[in-house]
Amino acid sequence: MSRSLDFLTEALRRLPGIGPKSAQRMAFHLLQHDREGAAMLSRALYQAVDTVHHCAMCNTFSDTEVCELCADESRERALLCVVETPADQMMIEQTLTYKGLYFVLMGRLSPLDGIGPRDLHLDKLVGRASDGVVEEVVLATNFTNEGEATAHYISEMLKARGLKVSRLARGVPVGGELEYVDAGTIARAMLDRRSA
Amino acid sequence: MSRSLDFLTEALRRLPGIGPKSAQRMAFHLLQHDREGAAMLSRALYQAVDTVHHCAMCNTFSDTEVCELCADESRERALLCVVETPADQMMIEQTLTYKGLYFVLMGRLSPLDGIGPRDLHLDKLVGRASDGVVEEVVLATNFTNEGEATAHYISEMLKARGLKVSRLARGVPVGGELEYVDAGTIARAMLDRRSA
Ligand SMILES: [Zn+2]
Ligand SMILES: [Zn+2]
């Protein structure tokens, strides 16, 4: 039909979760109804590949050597919160309860996917946490098996270097009805119960 | 965080069916794991917007003035099959039962979406079907309300110009078990029954 259209359909399949049917539908839509959007997406991709790097301090995506948050003088530099992704970081920022800095792993330990400590650049985290200013590292990886294993590994590594390491509290979610919370969460909430 | 990343996330939302969460996940994935794919998609989009036009004869997407299929001398030029989309055309091609040419509407009449005869460029179809070579126009729009209405409108228009117009047969799908076929299909199959 059209070689350029085939190439576009093929390229759209590089997007996660997009199969051949979806890619075709997207290509048709862009060419028939939104060429302006297609041109804009082309520019955005080019620009992002060209300019987005990893922040030298926190490892998150940044257009500058050090990201805005790390450069913000009003943040507490003695606190370092470790998260798996920029999305997790944004969630914590939205709570407005944390005023320290971050380190973004950009992943988690996942032996099944072949992601080990070296792939996660944990040496960068160790260097960052050992700057002499950081006093406490708060581990905020997910409470999944992989997130827990990642937290455990990092915890051992940093404690061996004399750093104070903490973990987000586990328990029943705010608004959570016990009837609908899984047993593991309730068990953990029971073990971690606090005086009321 | 990163202006380039925000721009990319925004641009990805121009893809049909992609919400804010999916766009973010796609942007992260491309920048973290597949910058080569991102650069390839950027080029594919640019190239497609730049080179994909509509075939002067059949209206489908084409890199050339007249598409390969329309230029193929081995196709029967007296038969013209009208379909809604390039995907529909490909489905018919896969059956290997049709050797004529096509006209691709690139849509359907849809008053609710504000798509009338003028938006579908039906004048282009009339001109194409009236070239003196086409003898029969086979309407292969979908058997949906909108597809049926589109077929009806085109049929009236072309018959008024003395052209022979036919429609794909309706009936029980091959391999269809009556128990699982909807009543409307069975009713139509009964009305259109043929001697066995
Ligand atoms: Zn940073
Ligand atoms: Zn053509």
TrEMBL record, chains A, B:
PROSITE patterns cross-referenced by the UniProt entry: TOPRIM
Annotated source species: Massilia hydrophila
Family: Belongs to the RecR family.
Role of this protein: May play a role in DNA repair. It seems to be involved in an RecBC-independent recombinational process of DNA repair. It may act with RecF and RecO.
HAMAP family: RecR
One Pfam family recorded for the sequence: RecR_HhH
Region forming the signal peptide: none
Record-linked PANTHER family: RECOMBINATION PROTEIN RECR
Gene label: recR
Domain of life of the source: Bacteria
Stretches annotated zinc finger (C4-type): 55-70
SUPFAM superfamilies in alphabetical order: Recombination protein RecR
Keywords: DNA damage, DNA recombination, DNA repair, Metal-binding, Zinc, Zinc-finger
Upper lineage: Bacteria, Pseudomonadati, Pseudomonadota, Betaproteobacteria, Burkholderiales
Residue ranges constituting the Toprim domain according to the UniProt record: 78-173
Protein name: Recombination protein RecR
